[in-house]
Design goal:
mainly alpha; 0% strand
Length: 256
């Protein structure tokens, strides 16, 4: 039964990847039914798999527009992960709980549970710090926290999270993709706070600084750079400057 349960969990993921959400839900439900008694007997071995299946059952229901069905799965997955982290840390290390909290935060936000998402995001930051995660991971989870706080109107706290994320970006080495992603988050946070001039400045500086990296690898950075340029355009703040012309050419493929 153990082997079959794990196979079903993988099959559900494959069906989801193919876009068959109903099939993935049905297969996931079968996997959950087999996994629950296994977890009762041996949580250290099977608990993480069950938590993952429960989480993705929530995601699948969310994609299908069934938030009321998704929420119990998300909460069950989170409760199991907390239990595993507390009682079986050798099988479920702190970084696993940290990542689970962040995943739950994103799903709760998508399900309209904005305040709960903020609480989970704050807990995720603490968990990543306790797990000695590197600066790249901390930057991303702090950026997520900034967005979650912005969603509930906590603009000053959101900017504080952005500042903390920016400090981690500096500690993480040269990562143009991370710099662009964080700039996009900062732009969103500042725009929501009514600081459009500051948002435009952040976006312009990030795009101009990223130009050499875009020259080197336009294909990899084009999606992020393109989104930031679009945000800048929506703010009505695209300058008539040589670097903008070159960036547009690179993003269109003409400068490759």
């Amino acid at each position: 039964m153990s082997e079959r349960a794990h196979e079903l969990a993988q099959e559900a993921m494959a069906l989801m990847a193919q876009g068959d959400m109903e099939g993935a839900l049905a297969t996931g439900e079968h996997a959950v039914g087999l996994l629950r008694p296994l977890v009762d007997e041996d949580p250290a071995t099977h608990g993480a798999v069950l938590a993952s299946v429960l989480q993705f059952q929530g995601v699948r229901n969310s994609i299908l527009g069934r938030p009321e069905a998704a929420l119990p799965f998300c909460r069950d997955a989170l409760a199991l992960r907390r239990t595993l982290a507390a009682e079986h840390p050798e099988a479920f290390p702190p970084i696993e709980l940290a990542e689970g909290l962040n995943d739950a935060c994103v799903l709760m936000s998508a399900l309209g549970q904005a305040e709960e998402a903020v609480d989970l995001s704050e807990e995720a930051v603490t968990a990543f710090e306790a797990a000695d995660a590197g600066p790249d991971a901390l930057m991303m989870v702090l950026g997520n926290l900034a967005l979650r706080r912005t969603a509930v109107g906590r603009h000053e706290q959101a900017k504080e999270a952005c500042d903390a994320a920016l400090a981690q970006l500096g500690a993480g080495g040269d990562r143009p993709d991370h710099a662009l992603r964080l700039a996009g988050i900062r732009g969103t946070v500042l725009t929501a706070a009514g600081e459009t001039d500051a948002a435009a400045s952040v976006l312009r500086d990030a795009l101009e600084s990223a130009l050499p990296a875009v020259r080197d690898d336009a294909q990899a950075l084009a999606p992020l750079a393109g989104m930031l340029l679009e945000d800048l355009e929506q703010l009505g703040a695209v300058a008539d400057a040589p670097w903008v012309t070159e960036l547009r050419s690179l993003l269109s493929g003409d400068g490759a």
